[in-house]
Specification:
single chain; six-stranded parallel beta sheet; about 20% strand
Amino acid sequence: MHVLILGGTTEARRLAELLHDTPGLTVTSSLAGRVAGPRLPPGEVRIGGFGGVEGLTAWLAEHAVNVLIDATHPFAGTISFHAARAAATAHVPLLAVRRPGWVPVAGDDWHEAGSLEEAAELLPALGRRVFLTTGRMGLVAFAGLDALWFLVRSVDAPEAPHPARMEVLLDRGPFTLDGERELLHRHRIDVLVTKDSGGAATAPKLTAAREAGVPVVVVRRPPVPEHVPAVAGPEEAARWIGELPHRRAVPAAD
């Protein structure tokens, strides 16, 4: 059986690890190629887009894919809809791995935004020194805020257009709570901007912000296709694959 996993996320890599070396199973992981030095999962790997719904549908047929797993980033957006349409057209079972979003707790000062543009509109009323953790894409939304200073954290260096007053911190999670506390203090951050990515790797910044009384602008997730079965993590996805009628059970995670 051939399983195609879409995504370079932590969940996608973990699922590839769980399925790796399973007798009778071929696993291919597909990465978008937006990060220069991605962490590669075990098994076969392809990097780059498919060319839309038609390209993905053709790839599923040409490579005899039996199962499609959408383990893409919560903000990948478009690819999830492409996966749903391609899977339906190719008659390939599809499962989405969707990590739970973050939930505010007592002491949080969260301000929701529907987009990066909305987040930028909120900032002048909230602070002057911004910790921007939305990645290197979309910085144009903040380019006109010349009165504000930005600390931009991303895996790869951002390209213009971007804020005029900006310092870039090249780093990759997971991040520690002590590290996030020190970063907020050292750079005198008074407002944090993040996407609701969920997961534990980048969550410590939310705790550090709560402790420091720093408001957080949280960009809501984009919509996902309806009626696609979904699980919260790779272990559940591995069990789902193992329970398919034409497969014996896949061993559960340790």
